[in-house]
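Each record in this resource describes a single protein on a pair of labelled lines. An example record follows, reproduced without changes.
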Amino acid sequence: MKEQLEQLLAAAVAQLKEQGTLPAELSPRIQLDRPRDKSHGDFATNLALMLAKPAGMNPRALAEALLAALPENTLVAETTIAGPGFINFVISQDQLVQQLEHAYQDAKVGVAGAEQAQRIVIDYSSPNLAKEMHVGHLRSAIIGDAVARVCEFLGHTVIRQNHVGDWGTQFGMLLAHMEELEGSELAMELSNLETFYKAAKKRFDESPEFANRARELVVSLQSGDEKCLNLWQQFIDVSLSHCQEVYDRLGVKLTRADVMAESAYNDDLAQVVEDLRSQGLLVEDQGAQCVFLDEFKNKEGEALPVIVQKSGGGYLYATTDLAAVRYRQNVLKGDHLMYFVDQRQGLHFQQIFTLAKKAGFAREDLQMDHYGFGTVMGKDGRPYKSRDGGVTKLADLLDQAESRALALVQEKNTELSAEEHANIAKVVGISSVKYADLSKNRTSDYIFDWDTMLSFEGNTAPYLLYAYTRVMSVFAKANVKPDALSGTFVLNDEREIALANALVRFNEVVHTVANKAMPHFLCGYLFELAGAFSSFYEACPILQAEDENVQQSRLKLAALTAKTLHQGMELLGIETLDKM
């Protein structure tokens, strides 16, 4: 409806330009918003205020002219002009009912596919395999996964890339420690990568002989020494297994097939440097090979370097990322490259994208975007740590989430079996951790608070999960299937109309999430939808409705609510429950 209304306004602007009321060269961006005070209407625009000055007209007079120029249509039931010239629109109920019926019948709940399907390569999670995944890896994994799900839902071809760190100097240290261990002792040590890493680091810091051996092994590894590669592969396999366990528990759609590690680009790194040199882009600075981009300067106005090869011949993240751009364009045939990486890497990626195009590694029309995110903070305002002050492993965090959720559900419902309690606790615990993150603005830091995220009140996973079970309980009581209802939608009560208006917004919200890579818009919408259903449920009897047509309509509203909540949570990677 929003898109249709924007098209009507565009036609009105075109007519006023033909009449000479508006300057012919004007090309306004027509945008509609939902008014904060919903009693004013379903949509509002400040278009008249924007165009009043170039048109040399009073905003209210221009608003009246725009409304008079609107083409005849069956979409708009009522228009009003508010304040200095805001235009409010009320959508006709016939249109609303048509949209509801379409959403009820449609497998995608009325969500239209993307206008132009793309091949989208999404880089997310990307842990360092030297250690187990920790809480700092949470945001990239679940935000990237939610956006990937939404893009697939809209018809794009999504190619997931888990750009894991599996190369570099720290692996020499780990290999040196592996050399000192044998058989069962090595297997036992590798069962806890965090402990293994700390032991190797301690040896590296305390023993010059060990440190020298570690440096030698780095050279051997990068030279393709078979023994080193075998040890390295053993470590990588264990580490990736740890990662996969976490992904499976989180419901993140990443597999071993999606792993494209730093080491995979190793053979192309020398060619990247040579190609930059052949184009006259390389400058030697203190022995290192650099590219200076005038687009990025320091406070003194000097161009900042992109270092692609160290003085000793080693390569850096920039070199690998340039090779990855080439691979994602030339081999994966990506139209749009999306990177979900900590926002502190913003400058790095802007430099990479600029240099990739300047060097011809990326087409001019290749879309490359870095979607940064904030930090998970503790209540003390610092990056979240475990009780002992160390970095919290994700596996331990999820264990704690399930444990806390189990205590909560056992207290809430004592009639369920132990197996049912355990399953509900798993879903509630994992969902609570994910939703607490996804419901926050991607670019902001957020406070990790167990009490808030496990609460059944407010914009939380438990609240939404309970709201869904509440809707489903209606059909359990009625002994009818929510997808097999007849009759038409009848909207008389203001709570029915409010719920209907919320339901038809799903299409708009899903597209907004895809366009802005902001899952919190979907979270906010689902929370509002659950609230609208609650108000409807309390005020409008469903199974006790005396009129059969009204009962069928209210059942269909409930069914569409359940369908929308289920689909919305699935797009967020959150599992639903039929009872709690």
Q: What stands out?
A: Residues 169-258 form one domain. The chain has a mean pLDDT of 91. Residues 2 and 520 are 20 Å apart (CA to CA).
